[in-house]
Design goal:
The protein is α+β, with helices and mostly antiparallel strands. The chain has one domain: Cytochrome p450 (Orthogonal Bundle), CATH 1.10.630.10. It is about 45% helix and about 10% strand. It has a 5-stranded mixed β-sheet. Strands 4-10-9 form a 3-stranded antiparallel β-sheet. Strand 1 and strand 2 form a beta hairpin. The longest helix has about 30 residues. The N and C termini lie close together (about 10 Å).
Length: about 425
């Protein structure tokens, strides 16, 4: 038997300026939402905040307002064409790329969705379920061979999405290290020079991948994307690069973060874990509730949108034409008006209200089915193999990493 896994990381310093009106807000204990969201929700549901680069924007914190903004692609847009467009983070050009799907609106956005949607249908995802389970079982085999206890972050949660992405790109597992390095840089607050070097390296790889897929197409997802078309429409090289990069970042960082935070929720209150072990049918419908309670990255960071005209929100707040407003999903997901007792994970919570975990309206995430399938299969496989799984430290003893805009756990020590 191995020795107990002891976390060797300490919480990183919050990397952005702090103050009562500075945004993003530092998380609360154990990666919980900042109490500032609840305070503003009660006092002023739409208020001004200052971003790290001193841009001043509005912040929405209620479910009704955030849903209204996210659902309205006509009146709330991502117009990144002006030099004075506010930026949420320094050195995060990958989020400000105008060819990125989430930054597009109107006809360009619809054109890309027509191309991408057929590659991510529920039926196609169902066809991947056996492959995902095969990958998960292999990861668990390796973890079991090393013995209990184990670190569920590095030995499990982070490995499934990396291996699945590599398979979808037709690449060997040995390429995982450079993908992890690329993603780690993109979601960090790295220096500009480092960010540019990684971007150049990734761009060169995309060029090679696209050329190979066009001259010798296979059946991997990347080949389908490169050669996808709808009535003659195709993605430009810049759009392809942005799409592939977002697949890598979301497919690795967000899924790994989602698996680990979901496991933390279930293992912190093992009664839930035991209920799901006994009745696995409950797990399928509970994945989005797990993500709502404890969103990947903490959910404190919202996408900035600009009002294309004056808009009155459900709270009664008026957003003037040209004003920018942020929509953090944790604000919507922990609004007690939409989700009574929002900090609690409830298996029987009604599904009538959207959690907004995957967006809304035209910008609803095209990979939502895949994301939920990966998380569900990962947790189910772990329950099959290790029904007695439990944490080896108290939840409050876990370290948290604040060195990137996706706040996460460096480790999750557990045994079986």
């Amino acid at each position: 038997m191995s020795e107990t896994v002891v976390p060797n990381a300490s919480p990183s310093t919050f990397p952005f300026p702090q103050g009562p009106d500075r945004y993003p807000f530092p998380e609360g204990p154990q990666g919980t939402p900042s109490p500032e969201f609840a305070r503003r929700r009660g006092e002023c549901p739409v208020s001004k905040v200052t971003l790290p680069l001193d841009d001043e924007v509005l912040l929405a914190v209620t479910h009704a307002d955030i849903l209204a903004i996210m659902s309205d692609d006509r009146r709330f847009i991502r117009d990144l064409s002006e030099d004075d467009t506010p930026k949420l983070f320094p050195n995060m050009e990958v989020l400000e790329d105008p060819t990125l799907l989430m930054n597009m609106h109107g006809e360009d956005h619809l054109r890309l969705r027509r191309i991408i949607n057929p590659t991510m249908t529920p039926r196609r995802v169902d066809g991947w379920r056996e492959e995902i389970r095969e990958i998960v079982d292999g990861v668990i085999d390796d973890m079991e061979a090393k013995g209990s206890p184990a670190d569920l972050m590095t030995q499990f949660a982070n490995l499934l999405p990396v291996k699945f992405i590599l398979r979808q790109f037709g690449l060997p597992d040995s390429d995982g290290d450079r993908f992890i390095r690329w993603v780690g840089t993109w979601v960090s607050v790295a220096e500009q020079e480092t960010m540019e070097a990684v971007q150049a390296e990734f761009s060169a790889w995309v060029d090679e991948t696209v050329e190979r897929a066009r001259t010798n197409p296979g059946t991997a997802l990347v080949d389908v994307l490169v050669n996808a078309h709808d009535e003659g429409e195709r993605m430009s090289n810049a759009e392809l690069e942005s799409m592939i990069r977002s697949m890598v970042v979301a497919g690795m960082e967000s899924i790994g973060n989602g698996i680990s935070r979901s496991l933390l929720t279930l293992l912190s209150e093992r009664a839930y874990w035991e209920m799901l072990v006994e009745d696995r049918s409950l797990l399928v419908g509970s994945v989005e509730e797990l993500l709502r309670v404890n969103p990947p990255g903490g959910g404190s960071v919202g996408i900035l949108r600009m009002a294309a005209e004056d808009v009155e929100l459900p709270s009664g707040a008026l957003v003037r034409k040209g004003e920018w407003i942020s929509t953090p999903i944790i604000g919507a997901a922990h609004d007690p008006e939409a989700f009574p007792e929002p900090t609690k994970f409830k298996l029987d919570r009604p599904k009538s209200t959207s959690t907004l975990m995957f967006g809304a309206g035209r910008h609803y995430c095209p990979a939502a089915h895949l994301a939920k399938a990966e998380i569900e299969i990962a947790i189910s496989a772990l329950m099959d193999r290790f029904p007695t799984l439990h944490m080896t430290i108290k939840p409050e003893e876990l370290p948290w990493d604040h060195s990137s805009f996706n706040v996460g756990m460096p480790c999750l020590p557990a045994a079986w």
